[in-house]
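Incident log, support desk, overnight shift.

02:14 A customer reports that sequence design results differ from what the structure should imply. Their input is reproduced verbatim below. On-call engineer (initials T.W.) acknowledged and began investigating.
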């Protein structure tokens, strides 16, 4: 009887989970990695699509399993990790420059999301976490001073909101005064609470602040499951699972799960939190106290998340639909000059010569595959 090949999601998850538990792999994992039935190109594709390829490479190396791979494959993985380590070194330098600008204006920014990993040493080395930009939280009363300080330092606006970039800089700097964009999500975690609960830390010659681990976890779950519609489409990505489990296992502070549950329940998001916790339990990422009975709807969502994780087509659709839904919702909620930005941009799009005809042709020509049509929804929030 032909043995069923290992699912790519399970291979990536198993390696990351065992590295979270320590540096000694189980015999089952050793046998799995050496198995000739693994389609490594699909495994690497899964890890890359879920933004954990450098972490996957580092975990295999730390578990002393990299030598069990084909020489070319092992060399590729080590090169990926090394490249991400070099990239993060550049981002740390970029962060140091930005912090210096803010410090001179009397502002100590709170690092958010991936930027935290450049300063808190959560992972075994700095090559684990992939970053695109740097998110900094500043008090709302200080936003104008922060923007002015960046302008005087030569930074230029580069986005729709309060994003700036230095000429020749490695990435853009995103300034935030709130944790979430939607008014309904705001009660989940207030900026003032994060600012008050943060701790100071030196970064080179500058001063930054790091959020409490509990607040980091709440922002991680809220951002992925609510802001980017992960719960709605039934998706808990590997990067979010890894980061949450690392905060639980390797974080400097213990997490008061009862307080976290109370905050999510009060904001009307009990099920997104519970589904995320169950996803962490699946596969043994970390032990989390679920607290109370799992209702049938959440149990169904748990199975839905597991199914999507193991079916490549469903995972692809879920990730794309979630992204576009979040972008469209952001356009609808935000205002530009007193008018809903999505409506204002839609009017501008319609007024452009040939725009409606082009969009209609896109729908007709590509109606056989909904994923080809989804990008054109962004026209409702065109820049």
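02:41 Re-run completed on a clean worker. Output:
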């Amino acid at each position: 009887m032909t043995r069923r090949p290992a699912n790519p999601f399970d291979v990536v998850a198993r390696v990351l989970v065992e590295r979270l538990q320590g540096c000694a792999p189980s015999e089952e994992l050793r046998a799995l990695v050496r198995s000739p039935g693994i389609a490594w190109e699909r495994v690497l594709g899964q890890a890359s699509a879920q933004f954990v390829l450098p972490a996957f490479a580092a975990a295999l190396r730390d578990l002393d399993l990299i030598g069990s791979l084909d020489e070319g494959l092992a060399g590729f993985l080590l090169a990926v990790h090394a490249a991400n380590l070099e990239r993060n070194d550049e981002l740390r330098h970029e962060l140091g420059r930005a912090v210096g600008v803010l410090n001179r204006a009397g502002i100590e920014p709170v690092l958010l999301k991936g930027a935290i990993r450049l300063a808190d040493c959560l992972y075994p080395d700095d090559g684990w976490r992939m970053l695109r930009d740097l998110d900094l939280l500043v008090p709302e009363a200080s936003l104008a001073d922060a923007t002015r300080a960046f302008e005087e330092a030569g930074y230029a606006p580069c986005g729709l909101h309060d994003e700036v970039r230095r000429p020749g800089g490695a990435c853009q700097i995103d300034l935030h005064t709130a944790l979430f964009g939607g008014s309904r999500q705001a009660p989940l975690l207030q900026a003032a609470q994060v600012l008050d609960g943060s701790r100071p830390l030196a970064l080179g010659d500058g001063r930054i602040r790091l959020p409490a681990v509990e607040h980091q976890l709440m922002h991680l779950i809220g951002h992925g499951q609510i802001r980017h519609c992960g719960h709605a489409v039934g998706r808990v990505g590997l990067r979010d699972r890894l980061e949450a489990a690392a905060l639980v296992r390797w974080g400097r502070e213990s997490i008061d799960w009862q307080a976290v549950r109370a905050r999510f329940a009060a904001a009307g998001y009990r099920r997104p939190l519970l589904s995320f916790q169950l996803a962490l339990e699946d596969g043994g990422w970390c032990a989390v106290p679920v607290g109370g009975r799992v209702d049938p709807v959440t149990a169904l969502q748990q199975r839905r998340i597991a199914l999507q994780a193991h079916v490549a087509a469903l995972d692809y659709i879920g990730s794309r639909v979630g992204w576009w839904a979040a972008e469209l919702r952001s356009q609808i909620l935000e205002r530009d000059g007193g008018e809903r930005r999505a409506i204002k941009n839609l009017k501008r799009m319609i007024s452009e010569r040939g725009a409606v005809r082009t969009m209609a042709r896109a729908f007709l020509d590509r109606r056989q595959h909904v994923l080809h049509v989804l990008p054109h929804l962004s026209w409702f929030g065109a820049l």
